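Practice problem: predict the structure.
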Amino acid sequence: MRRKASLILLAFAVFFAALSPLLRWYAFPRLAKIPANQYQDMVLEAKDATLLDYGTMQAKKVPKVTIVQTLKGNVEASDRIEKTAGRDVVVWDSLSYVQGPDGKMVSKLPERYIFDAHSQDPVHATGESVDGDPVTREGIEFKWPFHTEKRDYEYFDAQTRTSAPIHYKGTQTFRGVKVYYFEQTIPWTKVKFPKVMPVQGITAESVAKTGTTRWYTTVRKFWVEPVTGAPVYGEEIHKEELRGGTLLGDRDKVTAFAGHVKMREDYIKHTVALVKSNRTLILLLTSYLPWGFLLLGAALLSLSLYLEARSRRPGDPASTEAAEPEPVNA
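Answer:
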């Protein structure tokens, strides 16, 4: 009976030992992916910012500029692209909407971002765009890969339509979460005017005819939770200028926007809580369950060997004492 039990335990030990690496190296890469229907929004603020008044063409201080960023998964588009791409694809239709302290639009920048659901690598397909202009992204945008590494990545900048390194600067703790800090600096670069201008009747084409150009620079900062690859916090030191042309009169340049953009507190709390929850799910597949199954397999193997040894132990030896002679009746 002991030997039968030991064989059953041995079978379970082999099963759990084999399941451990399969879960980590086979199941996880296939199960961990960004859902195609994901929707998220975020509100950022730049307090005591500088903003251009297009009515007077003068830069002025304002108490606050608000940026609302939305990401919406386009399931129909991702299904269509997957048929030819041969892999799981996510399509995000995003919008960065900037409004002044009066609630009126300052600018808006729509994007379509197409990427691999597992690796976050860009997927080049029809529709990939920024403000309606076709682009070919290199590197990441919005999200880092699962199990982010301590190294530099190429990060796509929507204003310049180019990619540049975003540098790993060290490991920190943010709101109780271990994070990797990344930073990217985009030097002053001439960029396009947005297709939708804040003043009715003024278009990007009409401004371009005056000879005035738009320039932009930013220092982009992200604090990224490495297991999920999700930023838990972000900032930008953002500056825009209009330079030259008849639109500015006798001035060489004027500030269009300047401010230190930060996530609003309520969105920080929500993002940290969400990332903590997703981190636990990923660790179940990559750490907790694989190591748990491996230790369980080792324990079952030890118990199996113990029972096998007990079943093979010889029985007690027979008695060697001579029996007392019985009397013989006459």
